[in-house]
Amino acid sequence: MKTEIKQEIIELLNTLKPISLSEMDDVELLNRFDTKYVIHIDRLIELLKLIKNDYRILEVNGVRLNQYNNLYFDTADYKFYLQHHNKKAGRLKVRCRSYVDSHVTFFEVKKKTNKDKTVKSRVSIPAITETFNESQQQLIAKIAPDLNFEKLIPIQRNDFCRMTLVNMQTMERATIDVDLSFYRNNNNKKIDLPNLVIVEVKQDVHSGISPITRKLKEEKIYATSISKYILGEMLLNKELKRNSFKPKLLTINKIEHALVA
Question: What percent of the chain stands above pLDDT 70?
């Protein structure tokens, strides 16, 4: 992201009312419906201006644009990736996530139910690690008892900056991710997406009253199911099956001109 755009975003975020991590507990929404959108960074500032009176923003240690570092796991034959590609119900994501500004790290398992609901379970860990301790193994066994944790290997690291918005009226959060970077866990191959913005609206129930979704629709921006892990693998590993993802790649390619489908 260009420095001047980042500074303008930070200045705009500073005009929103803050919410603390402790206050966020009431809208944690680990069991939720997710709706995602992709836009160009140049459209983000106008979007924030349109919704700034409807949301509070998470502030962590004085920071409102927070850094996230992630390590994703999969099997050697990319079971989780293919579950997503083939639109399987009950598909999983397994990752370590460091919330840099909060100085906390979690091991997280996300499951998409057959009712299109996302359920996230997590345990606190000291730092991002490529091996699983006992609490991590127990979490995997609880959420996916048929999955052998020994078959999981570290596949992809990705980093981004996130602003987290909390609706003032309803049980809704919206996260907006910028400055995305993807890289292989075991080599130096890296891809940066400075122009791509991923907006994710998280609700306890599907609702048509979300200010941010209403504004996006008015701007003729429609939902695009996209996973950062899946996107990273499509960019980093050209050998993976991707037929069902081609429309999404074309959409993203229009936004981030450096991408090649």
Answer: 93
* Amino acid sitting at position 113: T
Convert the pLDDT of each residue in 142-200 to its tens digit.
999 999 999 999 999 999 999 999 998 888 889 999 999 999 877 778 999 999 999 99
Do 97 and 110 touch, CB atoms closer than 8 A?
A: no
Q: What is the pLDDT of residues 67-95, one digit of tens each?
A: 999 999 999 999 999 999 998 878 899 99
Helix (H) or strand (E) holding 192: strand 190-193
* Residues 38-65 pLDDT 10s: 999 999 999 999 999 999 999 999 999 9
pTM of the predicted protein model: 0.91
Find the helix or strand (DSSP H, E) in which 122 lies: strand 118-125
Q: Is 55 exposed, middle or buried (0-12, 13-18, 19+ CB in 10 A)?
A: buried
What sections of the chain are H helices per DSSP? 3-13, 41-51, 79-85, 134-143, 211-218, 228-236, 246-255
As separate numbers, helices (DSSP H) first and strands (DSSP E) second, the chain gives 7, 11
Q: How far apart are CA 248 and CA 162, in angstroms?
A: 22
Q: Which residue type sits at 71?
A: L
- Burial class of residue 240, CB neighbours in 10 A (0-12, 13-18, 19+): middle
By DSSP bridging, strand 92-99 and strand 172-184 are unpaired
Q: Please tell me the distance from the alpha carbon of residue 133 to that of residue 46, in angstroms, as a whole number.
A: 45
Asked whether 185 and 157 are in contact (CB, 8 A), the reply is: yes
In the chain, the amino acid numbered 75 is T
Domains in the chain (CATH in brackets) are 3-255 (3.20.100.30)
Q: Are 179 and 9 in contact (CB under 8 A)?
A: no
